[in-house]
Amino acid sequence: MKGETYYSVRMRASQNGRHEDGGKHISGGEKLTPFDGLKHTVNALLEKGLSHSRGKPDFMQIQFERVNEPIRTIQPLLIETNEADSAEKGQELAKELISQAGVPRDMIEKAFREIAEYSRVRGAVLFDIHSGRRIDGRKDKGVRVSRMDWPETGFEEWAAGCGMPPNPRMKEALAVAAKVSGHPAVVAELCWSDDPDYITGYVAAGELGYQRITKMKEYGDESGCRIFFVDGLIDMKNCIDYLEKQPVLIQSGGEG
Ligand code: PML
Ligand code: MG
Fold first, then answer.
1. Burial letters 137-168, b for 16+ CB under 10 A, else e
2. In the chain, where are the structural domains located?
3. Using one digit for the tens of pLDDT, what is the confidence trace for 182-210?
4. pTM beyond 0.85, yes or no
5. What residues flank ion ligand 2 with Cβ within 5 A?
């Protein structure tokens, strides 16, 4: 793996025009692959964008580019599943876990009050745990975490070892969470899907691991959430550069 040339492959799909022209987000995807995996990867992303519960896209962009920076390998987070029988209980549990990760309670409440507004943002929102303000400065675009992947064989071995089904959605979310929590400014991540038929979400942080919560919203709800609770005293440019540009492969036995 090390020494091999990798390519970052990205897909985004929307309906009623491009995202930046007000189109509805349908699907997105991020992969890292060696050259000989490009065809398969592009096809997999095409398939993902075309068969989505948020609707049929009328705009899709798939692009690849060679990655010139050295690739970092990062270990998967520990995983736990927490059952919640209502969205209200799931969100209360999420608040408790975010607080265990080190975010002050009043800041968590403030972030949750702003979730409806943040759900309009296409990427992630960076929320400063000191000021209680959004500090990514990216307006509707937010921050798109890119250039990470978990090679399939490694993921399948890991999933079998944890007794988890090798679910591709979970693989992608775990790869994002491991990359994001690998930056020292990120204290915790809160996420649930914008897909109307998927209600499991998670809270993730280095020590806490990847804490799945089985119900974070109601079926049929198309509002998602991706908030990174960050220590705004740490250099945010460095953090955003890392999230968008640092290539990362998830690998058991990788860096912490
Ligand atoms: C998404 O699909 O956008 C996020 C899914 C988060 C939860 C994945 C899981 O652990 O089941
Ligand atoms: Mg989605």
1. ebeeebbbbbbbbbeeebbeebbeeeebeeee
2. 6-68, 73-250
3. 999 999 999 999 999 999 999 999 999 99
4. yes
5. 194-195
